[in-house]
Amino acid sequence: MTIRWGIMGTGKIAHGFARDFAAVQNAEIQAVASRDMQKAQEFAREFGIAKAYKSYEDLVADTEIDIIYIATPHTLHYSNTLLCLNKGKAVLCEKPLAVNYQQVKEMIDLARDKNLFLMEALWTYFLPAILQAKSWIDQGQIGKITLIQANFGFKTTFDPKSRLFDPNLAGGALLDIGIYPIALAILVAEGDPVEIKASASLGQSKVDEYDAILLSFKNGIRAQLSCSLVSYLRDDAFIYGTEGYIHIPDFWHAEKAFLYQGDQMIERFEDQRNTRGFNFETDEVNHILTHHKTESSCMPWQQSIRLIQIMDEVRRQINLTYPFE
Questions:
Q1: What's the 3-state SS for 31-69?
Q2: Residues 255, 58: Cα–Cα separation, whole Å
Q3: Residues 6 or more apart whose Cβ sits within 8 Å of residue 51
Q4: How far apart are CA 246 and CA 134, in angstroms?
Q5: 77-86 and 101-114 helices cross at what angle (nearest 10)?
Q6: DSSP summary character for residue 2
Q7: 82 sits in which H/E element
Q8: pLDDT of residue 263
Q9: Distance, CA of 304 to CA of 280 (rounded, Å)
Q10: Rounded distance, CA 51 to CA 284, Å?
């Protein structure tokens, strides 16, 4: 069975996804759509895609497509996903799934009602290094987990019209990159935080340019997380336990993981991929669709709900509301 894909959007993330598709088995990209026909045609030529559409409506009307990968800006995820689901298309939607809980709930409810597959494209969860780290934890290699630390930050030039700084596009550090350390924390801690504390620096466009987040879990685990658009952070994660710790360099696109017991490294993992890593989540989606399931066990709907509820609470605490809300 060959899974037939369509891509909605032609930006940087869509290019990365399509580039890695060469490593995907039993699937093909059949169509791409953009609001700019020239961009759609250029994207199709670059990746050898048969069909280019000038509207998202034309893409979802294509009866030869099984699933659509949504790679549009944050603020379009909600409407784009509803469009796809209402036309009977399965959906893999880039993170964040939407910009607030109400939107995410409506998207999931519709997927459930339509009996269609929907998944938030949090590719980090499917990377071999992350899976290896989780395996070490499950084996008890570092004892009982006590602390998770994860940061993701870079410095970029301020542009009030860019998606990173424009509040009308749900700009800011939290939804764009802060989601990664939060996602890692809830993956490892395996549950909802019982306490959330957040602080942030809001910039001249009134979006969060830096966030510091502390999550406390019922099992005693604490997570210290940060994200930034105005400073370079070491994009590493450390998972500390009573018997050792795990270090994951560049955790959000991890290729390596190191296991320490005491202060001695006892094992290292490094995958030998020649892709960015999008192919792992794509292979998982293809497997799920082949088996006619609507939800991923690795990235289930409840995890997307948990993520957006945490980010909603962070935004409440830092007084960040988008103009369209």
A1: EEECCCHHHHHHHHHHHCCCEEECCHHHHHCCCCCCEEE
A2: 38
A3: 30, 31, 32, 44, 62
A4: 10
A5: 10
A6: P
A7: helix 77-86
A8: 87
A9: 19
A10: 25
Q: Is 148 helix (H, G, I), strand (E, B) or coil?
A: strand
Tokens encoding 9: 């959007």
d(CA 226, CA 150): 7
Do the Cβ atoms of 274 and 287 come closer than 8 Å? no
Q: How many CA atoms lie within 13 A of 79 on its CB side?
A: 7
CA–CA distances in Å: residue 195 to residues 175, 215, 236? 20, 6, 23
Considering only CA atoms, which of 18, 89, 1 is closest in space to residue 282?
Answer: 18
Confidence (pTM): 0.97
For residue 324, give every residue at least 6 positions away whose Cβ sits within 8 Å of its Cβ, in sequence order, or none. Answer: 75, 168
> Mean pLDDT throughout 285-310?
97
Which residues have a Cβ under 8 Å from the Cβ of 119 and sit 6 or more positions away?
Answer: 91, 92, 93, 285, 288, 295, 296, 299
The pLDDT tens digits of the residues spanning 184-211 come to 999 999 989 999 999 999 999 999 999 9
Cis bond leading into 96, ω under 30°?
yes
Helical axes 179-189 vs 301-317, angle rounded to 10°: 120
Average pLDDT over the chain, rounded to whole?
Answer: 97
Q: How far apart are CA 43 and CA 24, in angstroms?
A: 18
Instruction: State the average pLDDT over residues 68-80.
Output: 97
Q: The tokens 């959007």 sit on which residue?
A: 9
Query: What ranges make up the beta strands (E) of the chain?
Result: 3-8, 27-33, 51-53, 67-70, 90-94, 118-121, 145-153, 193-202, 208-217, 222-228, 237-241, 244-248, 256-261, 264-270
